[in-house]
Design brief:
single chain, 107 residues, alpha+beta, 3-stranded antiparallel β-sheet, 2 helices
Length: 107
């Protein structure tokens, strides 16, 4: 798996959410509830999979290294621990020892 260091901004998140909103309006996702979607805010490409790792593997297989915005299909949040609505830091550690992190928060 590739890890891309980027300067993801709030505008990137907003753009990814716009892309996702449009995708949901054009596609029936009722059979995909609980799966993961990864959205490239620049190209508008969306990859679907069973997990973040699955989505990244699909992105990598397509030859892309784009940073992604993740959503859990059918859920308002990707990950929620307890009742907290505070931001959570998501840290992914890859087998080669590298890692990627991002801020997860409820909108």
């Amino acid at each position: 798996m590739n890890v891309t260091v980027s300067n993801w901004t709030e505008a990137d998140s907003d753009r990814a959410q716009e892309i996702w909103s449009g995708y949901q309006q054009r596609h029936d996702l009722s059979e995909s509830a609980g799966q993961t979607a990864g959205i490239d805010a620049v190209s508008g490409t969306i990859w679907l999979g069973a997990s973040i790792q699955d989505v990244i593997a699909r992105r990598d297989a397509d030859g892309s290294e784009a940073p992604l915005f993740f959503v859990r299909i059918g859920s308002g949040t990707y990950y929620r621990k307890g009742g907290s609505r505070l931001p959570h830091r998501l840290l992914i550690r890859w087998p080669d020892g590298s890692s990627a992190s991002g801020l997860c928060r409820r909108r």
